[in-house]
Amino acid sequence: MRRDPALRSRRHQQHRESRDEQRESDWLSTWQHVYDTYHQSARRDALGEDFTGWDSSYDGSPIPLAHMREWRDAAVERILSLKPRRLLEIGVGSGALMGRLAPDCQSFVGTDLSPVAISGLSAQVTAHPELRRGVELRPQPAHDTNGLRPESFDTVVLNSVVQYFPSGEYLDEVLSVAVDLTAPGGADFVGDVRNLRLHRCLLSAVQARRSEENADRQTLRRAVDRAVATENELLVDPGYFTDLATRHRDVAAVDIQVKQAVHENELSRYRYDVVLTKASSRGSTGLLGRLTGGRRSAGASRFLAARRRSRGPVG
Ligand SMILES: C[S@@+](CC[C@H](N)C(=O)[O-])C[C@H]1O[C@@H](n2cnc3c(N)ncnc32)[C@H](O)[C@@H]1O
């Protein structure tokens, strides 16, 4: 049974009404501006090889190319193991994953909040004959399903994107959208999620590196508290995703995967990947409908944290 699209959009609308839409839209505009600026100056020589902006939180220097290639290849390998044929990547960015995934797929749709990212990537696709067929790129935010048919993708990818979401409610909505767009039995890969449980560990390591050698514990603790208070990205406890499986019939399985890497860095140590498998038989209500009748459960909120911080994106 195909779900009624009007019903689905009403559910999304209901979910939105309980939120501070102005704040969310300001937040999205801010990140769009950040990424438009970033993609304007991006190097566009080799597709998927531009890691400008992926700077170390410890000292601000670029994360070494070998580390970034390992990070990208590990994500590609995990996604290819899902055997994608019709793939949607939400937040496709500069195409780091797309360049390797699209040639193996029958169709690849990439969306991004940043129109500048999409136009730059479109120009690169035109220059790659092996990508031209079957690739479609659309400038639209993650919650926007315009032009995307329900259940038309066997794999939906959100890699290194959810940290820029304005709130846990927005994450709920986007996961609902992703699951609705996924065919029964398909998978949603939510990669490179910043781990809320390890947040203080990361910040302590960063502050210890940045502080004077003889800084005392109190000073360090205060610096970590300040860094926690000024965090402006969304961090998610892995429990949020395991909780999804218990709350939603469409999510048949949740696989939380620690990063596997030879190179140790803040990406391999403090982030994780998640694979949500959509049930093969279609239920009658979508994911969002089961999010406690449109209201986010108190249970889910304990797994989320959106905090302000002053510096720009990691990449
Ligand atoms: C760190 S890059 C990741 C790019 C790519 N997924 C990868 O793994 O290389 C984050 C991308 O997410 C996009 N983004 C951020 N917030 C978004 C949103 N709400 N909807 C869609 N894209 C978003 C940004 O414009 C940026 O291109």
Strand order of the largest sheet: 3-2-1-4-5-8-7
- How much of the sequence lies in strands comes to 15-25%
- How many DSSP helices? 12
Helix content: 40-55%
End-to-end C-alpha gap: 41 Å
Taken in chain order, the helices and strands follow as HHHEHEHHEEHEHHEHEHEHE
What number of domains? 1
Low-pLDDT windows of residues: 1-11, 284-299, 306-315
Give a short summary of the structure:
By secondary structure, this protein is α/β, with parallel strands linked by helices. It has a single domain (5-306), classed as Rossmann fold.
Q: Overview of this structure, please?
A:
The protein is an alpha/beta fold and 315 residues long. It has one domain: Rossmann fold (3-Layer(aba) Sandwich), CATH 3.40.50. Helix content is 40%, strand content 18%. The protein contains twelve helices and nine strands. It has helices spanning 5-17, 21-40, 65-80, 98-101, 115-126, 129-132, 168-181, 199-210, 217-229, 238-247, 266-270, 298-301, and strands at 86-90, 107-112, 135-139, 153-159, 182-194, 234-236, 251-258, 271-278, 304-306. The strands form two sheets. It has a seven-stranded mixed β-sheet with strand order 3-2-1-4-5-8-7, with helices on both faces. The longest helix has 20 residues, at 21-40. Bound molecules: S-adenosylmethionine.
